[in-house]
Every structure is written in C-alpha cells, then in structure tokens.
Amino acid sequence: MKGSAGKTPIATNIALDREYALGTNELYHVFEGFIPEERLLAIEPDDAFPQIPDDVDIVFDLAGSLSKGTPSIRSAIEQSDLVIVPIYNEVKSLNAGIHTILEVAHFTQNILVIATKLQKKKRKGNQPEIFLDWKDSKDCQNIAETVQKNVDFPVPILPLKSSNAFDALFEKERSLQQMCLDDPLLAHSYREVVRQFNAIYHFIDQKHAQ
Ligand SMILES: Nc1ncnc2c1ncn2[C@@H]1O[C@H](COP(=O)(O)OP(=O)(O)O)[C@@H](O)[C@H]1O
Ligand SMILES: [Mg+2]
After folding, report:
1. How many Å lie between the centroid of ligand 1 and the Cα of residue 88?
2. What is the pLDDT of residues 159-180, one digit of tens each?
3. What digits encode the pLDDT tens for the residues 96-120?
4. How far is the CA of 7 from the centre of ligand 2 (A)?
5. Which end of the chain is less enclosed by CB atoms within 10 A, N or C?
6. The domain that contains 141 carries what CATH number?
C-alpha cells in the first residue's frame, strides 16, 4: 500500500526485536548500517525475492501495489506466513488498506490488520475520549467497521497507538523495547505501545505455530 501508514517503522521494529532478516523493495531504503548486512535483502521493485530457506525468518517491507503484478511484492507474499496491513483512520488509508486486503486475499487469507496511528478524539467540552483498551477507541472502531463492511471474510485487527517512538526508532536505530531497556524514562512513555507490539508478536508466533 502506498505511503505513510507505517509499514517501514513497523517492519523495522519487528526485525530489530525478533532478529529477523529484513527484505525491502525500496530503492532508497534506510536500513544500511543498522540492519546487519547479512540480514538485509534489498532488491529492485521489478525483481523477485529469492526463495527464502525454511529456517530463515524474514519480514518484508513492501512498497508499491500488488495489482500491477510487481514481482518483488508477489514473490514476497507468496512465501509469507502472514501479511500485515497497517491502516489508519483516514479515508485514503482506509481505501488503500481495503484494496490491499482484497488483492492479497487472492494469495492468502493469513492477513493481520494493524489499526495504527490511533489517537484519542476530543469529545464535547474538549475532553479526550476515555477507554481502557485502544481497540475501543473511535479510530480503531471505525477502521474495524470499515474493513469488515468491505471484506467478506473475517480479518483480525490489532491496535497500535500513534507515538513519536517510531521516529526515535530511526534516530536511535533501536527497537522500542530496546530503547526502553536503555532508558527507564522512555520505558514509562513507551509502555503502552510496547505492550501493543507484544500482542502483535504473540499473534505472529501463533501463526507460525500453525
Ligand atoms: N503507531 C504508529 N505506527 C506507525 N507509524 C507511526 C505510528 N505513530 C506515528 N507514526 C509515524 O508515522 C509515519 C509512518 O511512517 P512511513 O515511513 O511514512 O510509513 P510507510 O513506510 O508506510 O510509508 C512515521 O513518521 C512514524 O513515526
Ligand atoms: Mg516505507
């Protein structure tokens, strides 16, 4: 899916935390130097990824559109256990996300939507909305409803709040969890988003075990 939903920061965080290899089809990627060379697989959009050995774990950061038959995207999706589609609560992202899910569904129904960049909406009287779990936020609920209305099979959805931790990730070249271990103050501010990522890892591990 095109631009700014958070594919690159989410893929990078997964690669750093899980020590997965990282595959990218972006010509101007940002991974040189902090993803070890032997774990970085950078190809051009019109090339196909090689067959990844069964004992190698890899996360792909895929830019572009599957509908054009882009070989890099197709070859990655064909060998993936799980396709993660990040969607945020704006019309262009909802449209692109649903389009992506429908295209990916031709290859696999192992899809996880990450409802991302979630923010607390202001209620009447300028009060921020109140909830216990980010899945109950207006942003997440609208993403979930819009996806289920447009896709005729159930798609699991996990929440991820908006956070400047994702910018710090590229400055520090450390995962959110690693930054928290380095700095107890950050551990406090990033605690919720780290918890949300752990739920994503739990989901990945369950898929892997199947
Ligand atoms: N919860 C979140 N998930 C992903 N990105 C987020 C989140 N909150 C804020 N961001 C910011 O949104 C931007 C999305 O990253 P970007 O590289 O534009 O995505 P993509 O790789 O999909 O084009 C980054 O600047 C990131 O810091
Ligand atoms: Mg990107």
Report:
1. 10
2. 999 999 999 999 999 999 999 9
3. 999 999 999 999 999 999 999 999 9
4. 5
5. C
6. 3.40.50
